[in-house]
Amino acid sequence: MMKEWNYKKIGKFGLGLTTALLLAACGGNGDSGNAGSGTDEGSTEASGNKVTFVSWLTEQKDLDQAVLDAYLEENPEADIEFVYVGDNQTANYYQQVDLMLMGGDEIDIVMTGSYPDHAQRAASGSYLALQEYFDNEGVDPKEEYIDSLIAPVNDTLYGIPGDAKSWIVYMNKEKLDEAGLEVPPVDWTWEDYAEYAEALTEDGTYGSYFHTWDHYNYLNIWSLRLGNAIMNEDGTLAFDAPKFKEFLEFRKKMEEDGVQMPYQTIKATNASYRDRFFNGEIAMLPLGTFLIPELEDTSSFPHDFETTFAMMPRDVDAPEGRTYTEALYYAIASSSDAPQEAYDFLRFYTTEGAKIKGVNLPTKADEDKMEYVNLMVEDDTLVDMEALETVLNNPQWEDNPNTTAPAYQRQLTDMMVEEVEKYFLGNDDVDTVIQNMMTRGQQIIDENQ
Known about the structure:
This protein has 449 residues and is an alpha/beta fold. The chain folds into two domains: 50-163 and 326-376, D-Maltodextrin-Binding Protein, domain 2, CATH 3.40.190.10; 165-230 and 241-325 and 383-404, D-Maltodextrin-Binding Protein, domain 2, CATH 3.40.190. 40% of the residues lie in helices and 12% in strands. The chain starts with 10 loop residues before the first helix and ends with a helix. Belongs to the bacterial solute-binding protein 1 family.
């Protein structure tokens, strides 16, 4: 059983954040940015309890409005307003919303882009406990939503997951056909992946692409263990695990063999994985399902090849079917004047609303994922829907979210990226890099105790 982190120990980072917010809040009331998705139209004064939903997803205004319109048809007395802050940037959103909460602004529903960000704020007292609301509704959240995505903080449930994104491998079908390769089986391994990368590499095309994000340094760990990929069950660092080193060396060897775009090239050219894939410069791309809606967008990303799909490869010592899945977490502000109304709308927003939006996989349990894919993709001419269905409906599929991360997880991953870069750029050997990560990582842990 993975250790459950005690988020009451926010440490110096959390205290510094709180102090900064208090000082900033004293200086103003926290500008809530531009409100308005047209939500006043159709709202009523009947309940007297207005719900303010604060989001950073400005580009989804029309989708949110469609969800609200459907909700108002069933609940005409509801009074819901969407407010958008942060200009599509989570960091900007967090800064503004934290200030709004500290300043006493009228906020009901808030969101975070990851479990660690959610847990940090839940532990600070910003969010309302939700189990009582589920109990009153007669719903078990672990049965209503994907079990592994229901993640309490210090034994208390504060968040409802929505907008699931699972990692799969995108493949250029034209390149596969030219190399005489079949779509990989669902139980393929990273060794198989390297062989495919070699066979798919040709002039102007790399067989594989790993971006600069921290995820790409431990893709194998997702299949080996549940929860936090870089920490052990007892809360100690796992950077010195043999499998961690093995995958760094695996990634470096693919670069040295010329079958993967070099890290140095990606950094120097500020490479866009979308452009590289749609331009045919890379044949395989491990990435989240958030890319699926873009596969038919030939105006933004001109291409004429079909995209096919594979499961994330597994470590040779791992079971079949595990993949990293992440979700947004929606919460109700502890200061909300309309907690029941906010809860009711959130339940709709993360279930029926997810189908109306049609841009991500469901977090609701036992849903047909392909029903959501069909909403994402109107024209499947360039999308191998059969292969995608084989992947998403794999009977061995197991979501593996990181819901055991400490509040300082981002500090650890940022440090890891800094150190690992030295290895890929040839400045340090792998053993030195791992030792540095263990030392610096322990310092981060100590500072947050």
